[in-house]
């Protein structure tokens, strides 16, 4: 799935929905740093904050940033 998303993001780099899906893929693989980067890009592209809040908390938790994850 990861490779397919990478190809889709290359084809549509300004698609916030694809960035969110890519972040979810990184989270499923346990890569909080990459997920956080995709979430930041999605936010810059106008993704709704309500959709990202729990994803960002998961990304922070994977990075050991537990205090930030629960804030």
Chain-wise SSE layout:
Layout: H1 2-11, H2 16-28, H3 32-44, H4 49-62, H5 66-70
Strand content: under 5%
Class by alpha and beta content: mainly alpha
Give the SSE order as H and E letters. Answer: HHHHH
Task: Return the average pLDDT rounded to an integer.
Answer: 91
What's the number of extended β-strand segments?
0
Q: Helical content, roughly?
A: over 70%
Rounded to the nearest angstrom, the radius of gyration is 12 Å
Query: Given the C-alpha coordinates, what overall shape results?
Result: globular
| Tally of contiguous helical segments | 5
> Unreliable runs, pLDDT <50, ≥5 residues?
none
Taking the alpha carbons of the first and last residues, their distance comes to 31 Å
Largest sheet: none
Q: Which terms would index this structure?
A:
71 residues; mainly alpha; 5 helices; 0% strand
Notes on the structure:
- The chain has helices at residues 2-11, 16-28, 32-44, 49-62, 66-70.
- The relative contact order is 0.16.
- The longest helix is centred in the C-terminal third of the chain and has 14 residues, at 49-62.
- The model has no long low-confidence stretch (mean pLDDT 91).
- The chain is mostly helical.
- Helix 1 packs antiparallel against helix 2 (16-28) and helix 2 runs parallel beside helix 4 (49-62).
- Helices cover 77% and strands 0% of the residues.
Structure in a nutshell:
By secondary structure, this protein is mainly alpha-helical.
């Amino acid at each position: 799935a990861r490779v397919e998303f990478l190809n889709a993001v290359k084809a549509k780099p300004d698609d916030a929905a694809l960035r969110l899906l890519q972040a979810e893929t990184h989270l499923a693989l346990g890569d909080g740093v990459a997920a956080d980067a995709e979430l930041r890009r999605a936010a810059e592209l106008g993704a709704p904050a309500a959709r990202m809040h729990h994803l960002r908390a998961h990304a922070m938790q994977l990075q050991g940033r537990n205090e930030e994850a629960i804030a």
